[in-house]
Structure formats: structure tokens, C-alpha cells
């Protein structure tokens, strides 16, 4: 397949390296020092065992003209609107656009039978800029489970996980979704084709919508949050509210709430992506992970008071850091004495 990956950071870089190694024609779209390193030295991948390999993969600062079988949007949700115009210009009727963002996707109510079909999720598609540029017929959903990080420009470390769940947003089984699944499997990923991609989205989001903002506000790791009784109770209330929203919209969870929390606790002393972004002074994925759930609650007529409160606090933190041009990281005793 001819594949473009826009947002070739940690996950995009991992995908690009693996797909290229499986002889697919891959172009990575990145920027800054990371792009310069990709173009100069190639993409370096440190795998889960610690082994290192480097490959030359096409890399550019924009999507080159041409026909693509697939365009994978691998940036964070709040960055999608900035690239959709360029993506739209490169699409053919046969190009699939794979959304690989965390949280509620902008297309959530598209091709979803029911009273809310066609509704726009304003928190993740403000003003409809994404939906106005990307034809819904081209869209394929995914849920990304691998963890990876950029350890230096051009160097990606794969921490753990190989599952990329994918699915047509109307639940159909099509040749194009099977071809994408096969390409991912050839590249070493588990890529199940799901008839209900929205349930999978909620299963991952269920924990992220609570654990991420709480960690950003408290600077606590997953295990710290889950083992602190008041914090665990707060997580539980947020997840119960989200479950009510999802079930009102027709989703049925296949795992229990307690099992989902226990899974997060088992990850250990891990900083969530939102906490990492607060420490680095980057924009956080607050609307996709939290604000969108509150918005879906309003659409479904389900109150979400705990989610609303945590969202307000995290949103104020994000605004303060943005307005001050700052970041926020705990200074340990060893930092002060070194």
C-alpha cells in the first residue's frame, strides 16, 4: 500500500518504521528537529527488547501530491483541524483516512443510526472545519493501544503494545478495511477488524477521561491515583457518569468498571500523556478526552457533574499555562540538591 502518516511523532513514527519494513510505500509528515533528523539520518526504532534499527523512510513537512491508498492522521485531536485542508487536496475516492486520535472522534454521530445521526461534536470539531474538509465516505476509525515515545529527534522507543483495532464507522466489513488490517499485520501489529468501533473507543476512553486530567492536576502516577481511596472514588464517579452517557447512546461495555481501574493500576508508576504534556508545556488533549464526553452527555440528556467539575479545573490549568507560556513539573529533593 502507498501510505502517508501525518503527525509522525511517537506513534506515527512507530507505524511508519514498521510499515516501511514490511515493504509498504510510506511517507512521514513531521516538522522541526524531528523532521530534520528523519530526513538526515532516517527513522531509528528502539524495540521492546532494546534492540535498535534504522531505516530511511520518506519524510516531508507537508503531504506530497500523489495518490495514496491510506492517509493516517496520527497527531493529537486538537491538531487535526490544522491539516485537513492539505489532506483533502490529496484524497481520491479510494483513499482511506484513518483517524488515530484518543477520545471521542469528530465523526462520532456520522453513519450512526438513531436520533442524533449527523450531529456534530463541537468540542472536537469546532465550527465544523474537519467535517467540511474530510468526506465521511473516506473515514475509517481506529483505537491505538501501543505506547511509544520520542527519545530524541528521529529516534522512537516502542515501550509496549501492538494492538491497532480498526473498523468502518458504519460497522460494515469491506475489502479496504481488510486490506488495511493485512498491511498492519504484515508490519507486526495486531489489527482486528471490529463491527462496533465506537464501543472500543469508549473502552479505552473510559479510564483516560478520568485518570488523565486527575494526573495532570495532581502530578500523581496511575498507581498512586488508583491506590488513593478518595482519588479512586473520584475516578469511579467520573467513569460511572461516562458509562451512563455511553449506554444512553447505545454502547454496552464488555468489561466492568473495577476491572478497567485495576488494569490502569497494574500499569504502575506511569505518568499519563496529559501529565507529560503539562510538564512539557504542550497543549493537552482535554476536549477530546473530557470535554467531548460532557458534550455527549448534554446531547443524550445525561448529567455529568463530576466530569464537568474536573474538566473546569483542568481547563483552567491549561489556560493558565498557555497564557503564561509555561510548564509545570514537580521539583524533587534530588533536583534541588543536585
Topology of helices and strands:
Blueprint: E1 2-6, H1 10-21, E2 25-29, H2 32-41, E3 43-46, E4 52-55, E5 58-60, E6 70-73, H3 84-89, E7 96-99, H4 129-133, E8 139-144, E9 147-152, E10 155-160, E11 164-168, H5 175-186, H6 197-218, H7 222-227, H8 229-248, H9 257-267, H10 273-280, H11 286-300, H12 305-324, H13 333-337
Helix pairs in contact: 6-8, 6-10, 6-11, 6-12, 8-11, 11-12
Structure at a glance:
The chain has 338 residues and is an alpha/beta fold. The protein is built from 13 helices and eleven strands.
Main attributes of the structure:
N-(1-d-carboxylethyl)-l-norvaline Dehydrogenase, domain 2; 2 domains; four-stranded mixed β-sheet; 13 helices; 11 strands; alpha/beta; globular; Rossmann fold; seven-stranded mixed β-sheet; 338 residues
Structure description:
The protein is an alpha/beta fold and 338 residues long. It is built from 13 helices and 11 strands. The chain has a 7-stranded mixed beta sheet with strand order 5-2-1-6-7-8-11. The chain has a 4-stranded mixed beta sheet with strand order 4-3-10-9. Strand 7, helix 4 and strand 8 form a beta-alpha-beta unit. Helix 6 packs antiparallel against helix 8, helix 8 packs across helix 11 and helix 11 runs antiparallel to helix 12. The termini are far apart.
Low-confidence stretches: none
Oligomer class: single chain
CA-atom Rg in angstroms: 20 Å
- Which strand order spans the largest sheet, edge to edge or round the barrel? 5-2-1-6-7-8-11
CATH 4th-level superfamily of the largest domain = NAD(P)-binding Rossmann-like Domain
Distance between the termini: 51 Å
Portion in beta strands: 15-25%
Task: Give the overall shape, derived from the CA principal axes.
Answer: globular
**What order do the helices and strands follow?**
EHEHEEEEHEHEEEEHHHHHHHHH
DSSP summary: helix tally: 13
What count of domains describes the coordinates? 2
The SS-based structural class is alpha/beta
Give the name of the CATH architecture of the largest domain: 3-Layer(aba) Sandwich
Helix content: 40-55%
Named CATH topology of the largest domain: Rossmann fold
Give the biggest beta sheet: 7 strands, mixed
What's the pLDDT, averaged over the residues? Answer: 95
Tell me the number of strands: 11
Amino acid at each position: 500500500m502507498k501510505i502517508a502518516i501525518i503527525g509522525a511523532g511517537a506513534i506515527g513514527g512507530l507505524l511508519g518504521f514498521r510499515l516501511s519494513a514490511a515493504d509498504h510505500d510510506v511517507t512521514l509528515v513531521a516538522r522541526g528537529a524531528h523532521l530534520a533528523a528523519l530526513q538526515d539520518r532516517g527513522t531509528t526504532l528502539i524495540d521492546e527488547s532494546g534492540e535498535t534499527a534504522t531505516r530511511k523512510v520518506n519524510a516531508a513537512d507537508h503531504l506530497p501530491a500523489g495518490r495514496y491508498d491510506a492517509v493516517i492522521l496520527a497527531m493529537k485531536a486538537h491538531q487535526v483541524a490544522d491539516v485537513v485542508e492539505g489532506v483533502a487536496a490529496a484524497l481520491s475516492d479510494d483513499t482511506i483516512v484513518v483517524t488515530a486520535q484518543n477520545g471521542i472522534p469528530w465523526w462520532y454521530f456520522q453513519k450512526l443510526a438513531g436520533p442524533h445521526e449527523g450531529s456534530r461534536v463541537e468540542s472536537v470539531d469546532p465550527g465544523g472545519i474537519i467535517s467540511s474538509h474530510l468526506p465521511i465516505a473516506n473515514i475509517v476509525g481506529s483505537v491505538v493501544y501501543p505506547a511509544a515515545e520520542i527519545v530524541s529527534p528521529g529516534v522512537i522507543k516502542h515501550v509496549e503494545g501492538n494492538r491497532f483495532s480498526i473498523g468502518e464507522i458504519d460497522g460494515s466489513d469491506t475489502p479496504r478495511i481488510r486490506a488495511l488490517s493485512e498491511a498492519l499485520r504484515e508490519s507486526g501489529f495486531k489489527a482486528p477488524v471490529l463491527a462496533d468501533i465506537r464501543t472500543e473507543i469508549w473502552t479505552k476512553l473510559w479510564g483516560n477521561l478520568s485518570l488523565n486530567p486527575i494526573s495532570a492536576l495532581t502530578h500523581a502516577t496511575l498507581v498512586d491515583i488508583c491506590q488513593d481511596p478518595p482519588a479512586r472514588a473520584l475516578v469511579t464517579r467520573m467513569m460511572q457518569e461516562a458509562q451512563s452517557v455511553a449506554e444512553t447512546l447505545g454502547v454496552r461495555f464488555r468489561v466492568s468498571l473495577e476491572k478497567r481501574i485495576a488494569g490502569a493500576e497494574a500499569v504502575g508508576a506511569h505518568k499519563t500523556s496529559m501529565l507529560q504534556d503539562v510538564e512539557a508545556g504542550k497543549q493537552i488533549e482535554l476536549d477530546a478526552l473530557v470535554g467531548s464526553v460532557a458534550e455527549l452527555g448534554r446531547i443524550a440528556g445525561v448529567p455529568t457533574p463530576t466530569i464537568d467539575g474536573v474538566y473546569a479545573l483542568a481547563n483552567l490549568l491549561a489556560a493558565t499555562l498557555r497564557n503564561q507560556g509555561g510548564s509545570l513539573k514537580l521539583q524533587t529533593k534530588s533536583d534541588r540538591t543536585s
